[in-house]
Design goal:
With about 260 residues, this protein is an all-alpha fold. The protein has 2 domains: about 110 residues, Orthogonal Bundle (Endonuclease Iii, domain 2), CATH 1.10.1670.10; about 110 residues, no CATH class. It is about 55% helix and about 0% strand. It is built from 13 helices and no strands. Helix 2 packs across helix 4 and helix 5 crosses helix 7. The chain is globular, with a radius of gyration of 20 Å. The chain starts with 5 loop residues before the first helix and ends in a 33-residue tail after the last helix. About 40% of the residues are buried. It binds iron/sulfur cluster. Iron/sulfur cluster binds next to helix 11.
Length: about 260
């Protein structure tokens, strides 16, 4: 913490206190976001975990991570050999977009998921666990990024969930970045941690704030983004960063003029 200015130190302290307060409630596999049967499926099936991670974009986390379970229910199997034999991208898209749709972007997801299923069969002996078994965080992130549809953000989120929720033994947690997304980007700028919220700036700021494990900050910022820091009309009065935020909207009257 010695390289941090006072503002950064207070933010780290507040975020860590907030993390303690929320505990595991918003953790994908240990919290309350998913139904028990969905969580059990993701926890016990590494291939389902990988498809859940790939689905985690442009929809709420609970919808994305439930997709593998509902896919298995709809097609009656989660055997990857059978799936590649029976489904091409068009057929898989039809399954995903049948009402109620399993994702906002069924076509893109069909491409990503089928590509991942083939990669798992060809490169990982049919088992996604081989991506992270006995690997360092740096290796896990790199291998995840090789999948179509997995960005650095998703790879970092995957490594975080593996070590945090599944207790996968990853020692080099300094190589797990914060999972940069719209919530995190917005808050880093609003609280004044970065002037320009590019991915590089936010990742570097998080590495500076929590060098031993930057990704540890993800859940706290993500929760603040979901529950308080809306794009418009954020609930600043309730936000744990209220006293530290440069953009605290409570500072403004209804016409946007500063009143204090
Ligand atoms: S105080 Fe308001 S603007 Fe600042 S991070 Fe919290 S909700 Fe967002």
């Amino acid at each position: 913490m010695s390289d941090l200015n006072d503002h950064e130190k207070e933010i780290v302290q507040t975020i860590k206190e907030f993390l303690m307060k929320i505990g595991t409630e918003n953790n994908i596999l240990k919290g309350n976001l998913l139904k028990k049967e969905v969580k059990d499926f993701l926890i016990n099936n590494p291939n389902a975990f990988l498809l859940g991670l790939i689905s985690d974009q442009s929809v709420k986390a609970e919808i994305a991570w439930s997709l593998p379970y509902h896919l298995k229910e709809r097609i009656g199997t989660f055997d990857f050999q059978k799936i590649v034999h029976l489904y091409d991208e068009t057929k898989l898209e039809q399954v995903i977009k049948s009402k109620p749709a399993l994702h906002r972007y069924p076509s893109r997801m069909a491409v990503y998921l089928l590509s991942a299923i083939k990669d798992i069969l060809e490169k990982y002996n049919g088992n996604a666990e081989n991506i992270w078994k006995n690997k360092t965080a740096a290796e896990v992130v790199k291998k995840l990024e090789e999948f179509k549809g997995i960005s650095h953000k998703k790879a970092s989120l995957g490594a975080l969930i593996l070590t945090r929720d599944l207790d996968i033994n990853i020692l080099d947690k300094q190589n797990i970045d914060i999972a940069y997304d719209t919530h995190i980007k917005k808050i880093f700028k609003r609280v004044g941690l970065v002037d320009d919220s590019t991915e590089e700036n936010v990742l570097n700021s998080a590495r500076k704030l929590n060098p031993d494990f930057p990704g540890e900050l993800t859940t706290a910022f993500w929760t603040i983004g979901r529950e308080y820091c809306y794009a418009s009309n954020p609930a600043c009065l309730l936000c744990p960063l209220n006293n530290l935020c440069e953009k605290n909207m409570e500072d403004e009257d209804i016409e946007g003029v500063k009143v204090r």
